[in-house]
Amino acid sequence: MHNALSIILRTSLKDRVSIDAETQGYGTFLDYFNSMEKIAIPHHLGRVSPVFDVARNILTICVRDGREDKREEVIVDVLDPFLRAQKVSALGVDVVVCGAISQPFEAALSAAGIEVIGFVCGPIEEVLSAALNGTLEDARFLMPGFAGPRRLRRRYGKEHR
């Protein structure tokens, strides 16, 4: 019974989203979901958490066509780098925007296929807006004492100027 109900619910959701996708100009159900991206921002007291490794509260934001579609608050209380990366990956996250992050945690997230944009600071809403507008590289979002080119090198694997 549970499996049959689950299949019916999934089928109903797929049909509903397919209809929504067609009315919004997407060709197929798959195109609709491929246009989405999920961003995760660990936070504390309304700001990007200073250290990803121990942050418990994570805001996930679904972004479709460059605009926020849905957000959800999640608690991740796992401290092992690979288990933490697995849990974040299970949330469907594509990009983590965070403060400081140690090499083992960054490597675990990268191995899970998650892009890491580290050493970011500021109020969550401003950081999210900057991420959506492509202005996250602005100096005001750099953690104090952290140089821009080094941050870009960590993100892209080479230095950009």
Residue stretches low in confidence (pLDDT < 50, at least 5 long) are 1-34, 149-161
**CATH class category label of the largest domain:** Alpha Beta
Largest sheet: 6 strands, mixed
Inertia-based shape: globular
- The class by helix and strand makeup works out as alpha/beta
Chain-averaged pLDDT: 78
Q: What's the number of domains?
A: 2
Q: Gap between N and C termini, in Å?
A: 59 Å
- The run of helices and strands is HHEEEEHEHEHH
* CATH topology-level name of the largest domain: Nucleotidyltransferase, domain 5
Describe this structure in words.
With 161 residues, the chain is α/β, with parallel strands linked by helices. It has two domains: 1-34; 35-156, Nucleotidyltransferase, domain 5 (2-Layer Sandwich), CATH 3.30.420.130. The chain contains six helices and six strands. Strands 1, 2, 3, 4, 5 and 6 form a six-stranded mixed β-sheet that branches. The termini are far apart. The model is unreliable at 1-34 and 149-161 (pLDDT under 50).
Descriptive keywords:
161 residues, six-stranded mixed β-sheet, alpha/beta, Nucleotidyltransferase, domain 5, disordered C terminus, disordered N terminus, 6 helices
Secondary structure blueprint with pairings:
Blueprint lengths: L1 H22 L5 H6 L1 E9 L2 E2 L8 E8 L2 E9 L5 H10 L4 E3 L5 H9 L3 E3 L6 H10 L14 H9 L5
Parallel strand pairs: 1-5, 5-6
Antiparallel strand pairs: 1-2, 1-3, 3-4
Helix pairs in contact: 3-4
